[in-house]
Design brief:
The chain has 119 residues and is mostly beta strands. It is built from no helices and nine strands. Helix content is 0%, strand content 45%. Strand 6 and strand 7 form a beta hairpin.
C-alpha cells in the first residue's frame, strides 16, 4: 500500500520547501493507509520530485483527526536513499510502549507532519 502526501502551505498559500544545510527541506503531512506494513510504510524520493531522501524529522506524532490517539513515528532511509521507511510505534502503556504497530492495522486515520531532508 502507499502513504498519502500533502504539502503544508504557509498562510499566503506557498509551499514550505527550501534548503537546510545544503539539502532540500520540505514540510509535508503524511497519512498512512488502511493496511500498515510491518517494517514501515515507504515514502519515496520520487513522490516528492527528488532524487534522494536523507531523513525526516517528525514535527508531530501520528494522530487521528480528533487527536485522541497517537503513534510515535520514526523515519529510516534505505541504503540507496531512494526512500524512507516510516515506522509507527505505540505510545500507550496498554500495548507495550514503543512496540511497532501490528501488521495490517488500519492506520488510514493517522497523519504525521514531517520535515523531510533530501536532494
Amino acid at each position: 500500500m502507499a502513504v498519502t502526501i500533502a504539502n503544508v502551505a504557509t498562510p499566503n498559500a506557498t509551499t514550505t520547501e527550501g534548503s537546510l544545510l545544503g539539502l532540500k527541506a520540505k514540510l509535508i503531512d503524511v497519512t498512512f493507509d488502511s493496511s500498515y506494513v510491518t517494517a514501515g510504510e515507504p515514502l519515496t524520493a520520487i513522490s516528492l520530485g527528488w532524487d534522494q531522501l536523507h531523513g525526516a524529522i517528525p514535527v508531530t506524532q501520528a494522530t487521528t483527526t480528533t487527536g485522541t490517539t497517537a503513534y510515535a513515528v520514526q523515519a529510516r532511509p534505505n541504503t540507496t536513499k531512494t526512500q524512507l521507511q516510516l515506522f509507527l510505534y505505540s505510545t500507550t502503556a496498554a500495548t507495550a510502549p514503543m512496540a511497532e504497530v501490528a501488521n495490517a492495522v488500519n492506520a488510514s486515520t493517522f497523519t504525521v507532519r514531517l520535515l523531510v531532508l533530501g536532494s
